[in-house]
Amino acid sequence: MPGPVSFTIERMDARQVERMHELLDLFARAFEDPEHYSSARPSREYFVRLLEDDGFFALHARKEGETIGGLVAYELRKFEQERSEVYIYDLAVDEAHRRQGVATGLIEALKPLAAARGAHVIYVQADYVDPPAIALYTKLGVREDVLHFDIPVI
Known about the structure:
By secondary structure, the chain is of the alpha+beta class. The protein has helices at residues 17-30, 34-38, 44-52, 102-116, 131-140; strands spanning 8-11, 56-63, 66-77, 84-93, 119-124. Helices cover 34% and strands 26% of the residues. It has a five-stranded mixed β-sheet, sandwiched between helices. Helix 4 (102-116) links the parallel strand 4 and strand 5 (119-124).
């Protein structure tokens, strides 16, 4: 899928496990969180299972052979109606390639994939301390102010 500038956007599949490591490297840099994204990387087998799951979306933007942006999203099947929602879990663009339409291109590329799965909406969270993300998501969607809680399982 071509992007608005000179980059391509592609959904990764099980043949592209090495690109998952490129995405993790990108997220580690962009979010300044190498421990979270690098300390306990999944096995090749785990990545293959994940990439074979139709409800998992891993998109990457590439320019001149380099991963410059990435998006990871999950389908949440609903019970009250026969439809689903898609949650963007992570979205990042390499600092040198920001403000060039890469993030918007990644979200636009996700839309038909989500629609094909029966999704009626894509949703994403943003931190109050991240004005660029808030501006991007405000441009593309409707803001809802909610509270988020992490509940430990152990």
